[in-house]
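Dear Dr. H.,

I hope your travels went smoothly. While you were away I took the liberty of generating a structure for the chain from your last submission, since the lab meeting agenda had it listed for discussion. I wanted you to have the full record in hand beforehand rather than looking at slides cold. The sequence, exactly as received, is reproduced here:
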Amino acid sequence: MIGTLISVALGGALGASLRFLFGVGIFRLLGPQNFPVAILSVNVVGSFLMGVFVVFAAQRGLTSLSPFVMTGLLGGFTTFSAFSLEAVTLYERGDFGLAGAYVGVSVVLSILGLMLGLYVTRSFFA
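The corresponding predicted structure, in token form, is as follows:
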């Protein structure tokens, strides 16, 4: 149990650090944005990677890495708490349409990202 907890903690620290760096990279690439592109991007990319990992781990017998990768790394990388904050911030600013679009686009693209990750990785192992 302690080993699993340490694995999740290490993955979470790495994932959160990668999310921060990804956000810095998006900011440097695009500059300040009214729309939370960085958080949307990490959620979609993280969902894709979750799909990839689920298939890869099952095919290679690596499900023991799930606490580190899924809960820790990808849980720290993608963050719906930041997503929620961005959505509420847009709402409180009075950008109701943008807030709704952000929530809808985030959910749909994240699910599509996961499905694409499953498809791509299953195709690889077929």
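Two observations you may find useful: The mean pLDDT is 93. Residues 96-125 form the longest helix (30 residues).

With kind regards,
E. W.
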